[in-house]
Amino acid sequence: MAGAGLEDIVAGETSISTIDGKRGVLTYRGISIHEMADHSSFEETVFLLWYGRLPKAAELDDFRNALSRETVMEDRVAAWLKSLPAEANPMSLLRTGVSLLGLADPEEGASVTPEPWKEGFRYMGQLTSGAPGFGRDHPQSRKAIRLLGRMTTLVPAIQRVMKGQPFVEPKAGRSVAFNFLRCLTGKDPEEGSEKIFDKCLILHADHEFNASTFTARVAAATLSDLHSSVVAAIGALKGPLHGGANTEVMRMLLEVKEPSKAKAWVKDALERKRKIMGFGHRMYKTEDPRATHLRRMSESLCAKVGQPQWYEMSRLIEEAMWELKAIKPNVDFYSASTYYCMGIDPEMFTPIFALSRLSGWTAHIFEQQANNRLIRPVGEWVGPQEAHWEPMEKR
After folding, report:
1. Could you read off the pLDDT of 130-188 as tens digits, one per residue?
2. Cα-based angle 374, 380, 384 (whole degrees, multiple of 5)
3. Is 389 inside a domain boundary?
């Protein structure tokens, strides 16, 4: 009998990311998340996830420029977005926005079959054997570059639609992190903020067979198109049991208001059986390795912008949760104060998660379709063993 929620059930093979929950280890293509967070960039991380290896200097420059060229949203997509209800849930707006991008994509109907790349993939004219998925020459890869580029500006555009603000044009040749923050706030970010946000994107990029990623793979296994698979993933991420925890963390901090009340607030909340968001993870038996980096970033950024109370409250809540429940924070806990000190509204935290996780979703879509078999599990019957239709007068 399968465990509830398919816990501990192996649902497939992957070479994209892996988790060792007992030791608190997360790797991308075998490389520790700590190494990636400390030394890499989001664009390099995306390249690694999509194409299976770290890029050479010329390849990374080419990839960055390709993404940057695709950040400008088509006029018709911008007009559609402005026509959507500003009071809608941001994840609903994002889900619809990605559908609109799919309709506008010039290769919307392109084949997803990977036959020419089963023995390798092409990148800048070079052939590499043992490919994990699609190469840059394939329509799926070109669509993925367009989608990630446009998501860089789509997500901040959603916040600006909700506030009745005009859209901001991205800058050519700049990073995903730079253009996201520029299009969100209307001004060029400081280098420190750009680097912190870039690291946040790396930390959220992939996490093995989580709910939204597995949803994307199920959709991709039908040989549906890239945008449809991503829309399916966004629908899964929208659920409060998957995405959205860091939004609730920030609402909690705003409710607590000041550090002196933090520990008493936690104790009272637990006594009232209230769930404290941002703690615990089904996969990790020790600290979530992503939280290690976000704790430091929260402390640094909150101090820099003159709002140290958000980090201090978070630290005291973490201490209280360890003292009272012996539970450690997950990736969502310190990301809340980090994003908030960048001027990002709490309602936008989950769409940002989607922007980052798009890199992982796409890698899994590539991997699934490169060696595809329709995902069709069976259910264990727990209903009556024998039942019969009865005439209406006997019911």
Report:
1. 344 555 667 888 999 999 999 999 999 999 999 999 999 999 999 999 999 999 999 99
2. 135
3. no
Backbone angles phi, psi at 279, to 5 degrees: -125, 140
Instruction: Look at residue 68 and tell me whether its pLDDT is greater than 50.
Output: yes
- CA–CA dist 395, 379 (Å, integer): 29
- Res. 43 pLDDT band, cuts 50 70 90: very high
User: Domains in the chain: how many in total?
Assistant: 2
Task: Please say if the pLDDT value at position 108 is more than 90.
Answer: no
DSSP per-residue letters across 158-197? HHHHHHTPPP-PPPTT--HHHHHHHHHHSSPPPHHHHHHH
User: Sign of torsion, CA 360 67 171 233?
Assistant: negative
Residues 334 and 360 in one domain: no
pLDDT, one tens digit per residue, over 126-139 is 333 334 455 566 78
219 exposure class (CB count in 10 Å sphere: 0-12, 13-18, 19+): buried
The number of angstroms, rounded, from the C-alpha of 45 to the middle of its chain's C-alpha atoms is 13
CATH code, domain carrying 226: 1.10.580.10
Which residues form the domain of 323? 245-340
Catalytic residues: 281, 332
- Residue 169 forms part of a structural domain: yes
Residue 17 and residue 162 in one domain = yes
Tell me whether residue 141 is exposed, middle or buried, using C-beta atoms within 10 angstroms of its C-beta: 0 to 12, 13 to 18, 19 or more: buried
What six digits make up the tokens of 383? 């209903």
